[in-house]
């Protein structure tokens, strides 16, 4: 499988390059990044998709939400499947992804690790079991180079918990501006940034005299790269549509 890697010079991009080198059935044939010369790669790197004179089997994106327009334009023109791992997209961007997925296969996941996807299932079960009697707060911790906050994963976790409550919960991002008591319909979401923390997510269920915490700790970026490769292998065999980790987990 020939991969075009958008954001190839970033922290994740460089780990993906190394992990792909260990695979036999997949290679990076081109990269796109803002500063193509910033890293030494053994494939050509371009400033934009317009520099590409050949096609790949799949576009993998670990970059910034601002890149989305160019990615979808190229992907739709060339009918290339896209794996979107970048986080921080707004609602408009998500709509354009849904529209593009009517024409090409797109896989989107804010967290490609296996553990977080089990955590999501566990916290939904906990939320259904504990109901409104327990307050729910999510804390995420990441490295000091992360641009978006809160993490895409924290938002995904909150949305999944909210499904259990039929959308009745309200997301509260930090509490500085809220000089009032906590309402039971809130899900608090809090972001910590520091050092080289790869990625940690904890969901706290705080009840009367008891607390349940469910946590996931990413100890390396390789877990995301491995997930991306599994998702890529899955995606290239799909019809147009929007796919996510649930589709992948059901296929392995
Ligand atoms: N889904 C998942 O499992 C995971 C998702 N992520 C997400 O992946 C994204 C990248 O993370 P990370 O590698 O740590 O971030 P980095 O900032 O280290 O890397 C991003 C790279 O993309 C480049 N870039 C910026 N804008 C564009 C653009 N328009 N087109 C092409 N490249 C661009 C950056 O260049 P420059 O530095 O010059 O701006 C940089 O080289 C984030 O959104 C992060 O949340 C991360 C880990 C796992
Ligand atoms: O930026 C990161 O590093 C990560 N971003 C993703 C997110 O925003 O959820 C996933 C992972 O936690 C690492």
Compact overview of the structure:
The chain is α/β, with parallel strands linked by helices and 252 residues long.
Can you offer a commentary on this structure?
It is built from 7 helices and 12 strands. The protein is α/β, with parallel strands linked by helices. The protein folds into 2 domains: 136 residues, Rossmann fold; 105 residues, Dihydrodipicolinate Reductase, domain 2. Strands 3-2-1-4-5-6-12 form a 7-stranded parallel β-sheet, with helices on both faces. Helix 1 links the parallel strand 1 and strand 2. The mean pLDDT is 96. The site of ligand LZUJQKHR has 9 residues, from helix 5.
SS elements, strand count:
12
CATH fold type of the largest domain: Rossmann fold
Could you name the CATH homologous superfamily of the largest domain? NAD(P)-binding Rossmann-like Domain
Helicity level, as a percent range?
A: 25-40%
Bound ligand species: NADPH dihydro-nicotinamide-adenine-dinucleotide phosphate, the ligand O=C(O)C1=N[C@H](C(=O)O)C[C@H](O)C1
Distance separating the two termini: 19 Å
Continuous helix count: 7
Biggest β-sheet, characterized? 7 strands, parallel
Oligomer: single chain
State the low-pLDDT regions, or none: none
How are the strands of the largest sheet arranged?
3-2-1-4-5-6-12
Number of domains: 2
Based on CA inertia axes, which overall geometry fits? elongated
Going by CATH, the architecture of the largest domain would be 3-Layer(aba) Sandwich
Q: Can you tell me the CATH class of the largest domain?
A: Alpha Beta
Portion of residues in beta strands equals: 25-35%
Radius of gyration: 19 Å
What series of H and E elements makes up the topology? EHEEEHEHEHEHEEEEHEH
| SSE-based structural type | alpha/beta
Mean pLDDT: 96
Protein name: 4-hydroxy-tetrahydrodipicolinate reductase
Subunit structure: Homotetramer.
Function: Catalyzes the conversion of 4-hydroxy-tetrahydrodipicolinate (HTPA) to tetrahydrodipicolinate.
EC number: 1.17.1.8
């Amino acid at each position: 499988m020939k991969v075009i890697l958008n954001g190839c010079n970033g922290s994740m991009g460089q780990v993906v390059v190394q992990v792909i080198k260990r695979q036999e059935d997949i290679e990076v044939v081109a990269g796109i990044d803002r500063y193509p010369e910033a890293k030494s790669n053994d494939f050509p790197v371009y400033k934009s998709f317009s520099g590409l004179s050949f096609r790949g089997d799949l576009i993998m994106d670990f970059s910034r939400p601002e890149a989305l327009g160019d990615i979808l334009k190229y992907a739709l023109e060339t009918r290339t499947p896209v794996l979107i791992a970048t986080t921080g997209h707004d609602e408009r961007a998500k709509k354009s992804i849904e529209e593009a997925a009517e024409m090409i296969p797109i896989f989107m996941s804010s967290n490609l690790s296996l553990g977080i996807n089990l955590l999501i299932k566990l916290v939904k079960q906990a939320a259904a079991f504990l109901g409104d009697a327990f307050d729910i707060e999510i804390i995420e911790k990441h490295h000091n180079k992360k641009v978006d906050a809160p993490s895409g994963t924290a938002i995904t976790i909150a949305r999944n918990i909210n499904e259990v409550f039929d959308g009745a919960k309200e997301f509260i991002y930090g509490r500085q501006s809220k000089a009032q008591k906590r309402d039971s319909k809130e899900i608090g979401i809090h972001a910590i940034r520091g050092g080289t923390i790869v990625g940690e997510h904890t969901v706290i269920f705080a009840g009367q005299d008891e607390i349940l915490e469910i946590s996931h700790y990413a100890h390396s970026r390789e877990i995301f790269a491995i997930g991306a490769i599994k998702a890529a292998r899955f995606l290239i065999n799909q019809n147009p549509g929007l796919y996510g980790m649930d589709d992948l987990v059901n296929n392995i």
